[in-house]
């Protein structure tokens, strides 16, 4: 390795550390459970000193919050902007938002994070509460607004937006659980994109007046 490449590596190393620490944390949480994972174990897995990890994350819960934000927080912010700017039919934006979720399932650690939240929330209610408050209770009202807008304009038939959104999200949650729980046990690999397209076809046709 040349002196120049070593310099570049040193220059980008501090910026890379948070993502390396988060990757190590998720791997340990998945393997050992949240309770059994220690900050020093995460530091060792990430290749940083025990003291250095606290420069970025004060505790394990901060690691978990950062994992959730990294996986889906930015997408929720984007979805909110899209809803606020929407003019015209609702159905295309619903399809776009479902496809955004599919991309997160296929290209990020979101399935593993959802599995972690489900598996750890009984022993650590603060984990489930954080996900509920910062993901579910933010994303679902956005979708409810969309459904309500479609009903009000006559694009959709009369339907309870709260129940309709749960129907929309059910198969998407299944895809994340399938990826993180059942595929590692030998289940067939789920084509998440194909599932989403079929679900959108059935769902949106079912909402027509």
In short:
The chain has 209 residues and is mainly alpha-helical. The protein is built from nine helices and no strands.
Describe it.
The protein has 209 residues and is an all-alpha fold. It has two domains: 58 residues, Homeodomain-like (Arc Repressor Mutant, subunit A, Orthogonal Bundle); 143 residues, Tetracycline Repressor, domain 2. It has nine helices and no strands. The longest helix has 30 residues. It starts with a helix and ends with a helix. The N terminus is likely disordered.
Which properties best describe this structure?
mainly alpha, Arc Repressor Mutant, subunit A, 209 residues, elongated, 9 helices, Tetracycline Repressor, domain 2
Compile the SSE list and pairings:
Elements: H1 3-32, H2 39-46, H3 50-53, H4 60-85, H5 91-107, H6 110-120, H7 125-153, H8 161-182, H9 192-206
CATH class of the largest domain reads: Mainly Alpha
Average pLDDT confidence is: 90
Structural class: mainly alpha
Please summarize the sheet with the most strands: none
Query: So what's the overall shape?
Result: elongated
- Specify Rg, calculated over alpha carbons: 20 Å
Query: Ends: how far apart?
Result: 66 Å
Count structural domains: 2
Low-confidence stretches: 1-12
| Strand percentage | under 5%
Care to count the β-strands?
0
Total DSSP helices: 9
């Amino acid at each position: 390795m040349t002196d120049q490449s070593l310099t570049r590596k040193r220059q980008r190393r501090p910026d890379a550390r948070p993502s390396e620490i988060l990757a190590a944390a998720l791997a340990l949480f998945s393997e050992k459970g949240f309770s059994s994972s220690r900050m020093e174990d995460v530091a060792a897995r990430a290749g940083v000193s025990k003291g250095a990890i606290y420069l970025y994350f004060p505790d394990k819960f901060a690691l978990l919050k950062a994992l959730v934000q990294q996986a889906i927080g930015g997408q929720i912010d984007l979805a909110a902007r899209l809803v606020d700017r929407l003019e015209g039919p609702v159905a295309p934006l619903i399809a776009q938002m479902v496809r955004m979720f599919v991309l997160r399932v296929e290209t990020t650690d979101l399935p593993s994070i959802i599995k972690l939240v489900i598996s750890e929330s009984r022993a650590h209610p603060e984990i489930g509460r954080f996900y509920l408050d910062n993901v579910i209770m933010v994303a679902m009202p956005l979708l409810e607004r969309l459904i309500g807008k479609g009903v009000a304009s006559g694009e959709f038939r009369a339907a309870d937006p709260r129940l309709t959104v749960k129907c929309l999200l059910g198969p998407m949650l299944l895809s994340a659980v399938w990826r993180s729980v059942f595929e590692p046990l030998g289940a067939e690999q789920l084509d998440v994109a194909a599932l989403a397209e079929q679900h959108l076809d059935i769902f949106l046709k079912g909402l027509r007046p």
